[in-house]
Amino acid sequence: MPELPEVETVRRGLALKMTGRRIVHAELRRQDLRRPFPPMLARTLTGARVGRLRRRGKYILVELDDNGTLLLHLGMSGRITTGDASTPHATHDHVVLTLDDGTVVRFNDARRFGLIDYTRRGDEEAHPLLAGMGPEPLVPDFDGRCLAAKLAGKMTPIKAALLDQKVVAGLGNIYVCEALYRAGLSPRRVAATVTGARAERLAAAIRAVLNEAIEAGGSSLRDYVQSDGELGYFQHRWAVYGREGEPCPGCTCAEGVRRVVQSGRSTFFCAKKQR
DNA sequence: AACAAGACCTGCATGC
DNA sequence: TGCATGCAGGTCTTGT
Fold it and tell me: Is the pLDDT reported for residue A23 higher than 90?
């Protein structure tokens, strides 16, 4: 589920529920996800008041009033839902927070590729998980020049390069496929050859697809964190992802959308439109 | 240094 | 129905 648009949708939903609230109880139903939780996590959370919720790439940063910041990553299957105490624990609810208004926040992650860490305020960008992360694609100065600079010298396919969080923060398999399709660039193209007008097209496509997805998530996922973590309706707007064999929008090629595997991950594209 | 493959986990769809 | 297989929105580690 979680690439940048989904993480941003979750962040917005959580901010509405959590900002300004105090955590009155923190239940750790296991002590690790992808890695062990930081020591004393339950004690750190209990009694803390929640400040701003920010996002960096696919991480949600929850500021606490103890001069610390919680780092949350949803991995592949992570979900954060809110409800109240009447909801019984679900399988894979690993962390359950109760807020001072009775709201219950649950971090559920079947595959446990997610992660929770804690760092001191002001040190976030230096945290090993965030240090070296590439530019945020939705900030105003992210453009073709910025993107081309990150791709310079890379002989790997552009598909693989865009999945590297050091190149652009927050992209994942779906939105990389979609952005390359919109930009008309082959996923197999050598990354370093994406310069000039091609880089501008790709940067614009990345921004457009992410913004549209956030909007779509924002409307149908308004209550996402109260729900079962279903996708927003943007999945219905995928042009190529998950559409092997189907015709791509407005294209007359006989072959339709192709699927290939690059660095172990499925890539969906149109060989006619993408060069 | 750069890149690809492997590993980490569970759940689900598919096919026999 | 049961079982095996392959696939999944990520990324850290290992090996070439």
Answer: yes
